[in-house]
UniProtKB/TrEMBL annotation:
Protein name as annotated: Protein ApaG
Native source organism of the sequence: Caulobacter ginsengisoli
PROSITE patterns: APAG (PS51087)
Residue span(s) of domain ApaG: 16-140
Classification of source organism: Bacteria, Pseudomonadati, Pseudomonadota, Alphaproteobacteria, Caulobacterales
Domain of life from the UniProt record: Bacteria
Family matches, as HAMAP family: ApaG (MF_00791)
Gene (name only): apaG
SUPFAM superfamilies listed in its UniProt record: ApaG-like (SSF110069)
Gene3D superfamilies per UniProt: ApaG domain (2.60.40.1470)
Signal sequence segment: none
Pfam families: DUF525
Amino acid sequence: MRRPSRRKNQDSPVYEARTRDVLVRVIVSYLPQESLPEEGKWVWAYMVEIENHGTETVSLVTRHWRITDALNRTEAVDGPGVVGEQPILKAREAFRYTSGTSLPTPSGTMSGTYSMVLDSGEQFEAQIPEFSLHLPGAARKAH
């Protein structure tokens, strides 16, 4: 996993992981307008971009997320595809989507894998980089 980098003129770090020819990039934003700290609810949006840098078509079949709060409580989320789709990426194609999560603590982390299938039928797990869910101005590190 590469360390997070900064986008020019932006406060949100960019997290990336590459598995074989699949690059997964994540950018996170805290949503104060959706959060209710007085009720123990902090909300983040995250944009994921999946790029196929290979020569063979690849399909995203399932997802597996690990969401960990500041008290080290972990929730697993598994399911088919992402945002109701199972994208098929030809060589040099990318798929982008936005989703979100909430935590009962003001910080945490997310990471996981996408189950991918090549045209040849070979299956592999593409890593989703671990990324920090944090309040603006807070320390940006995985727990």
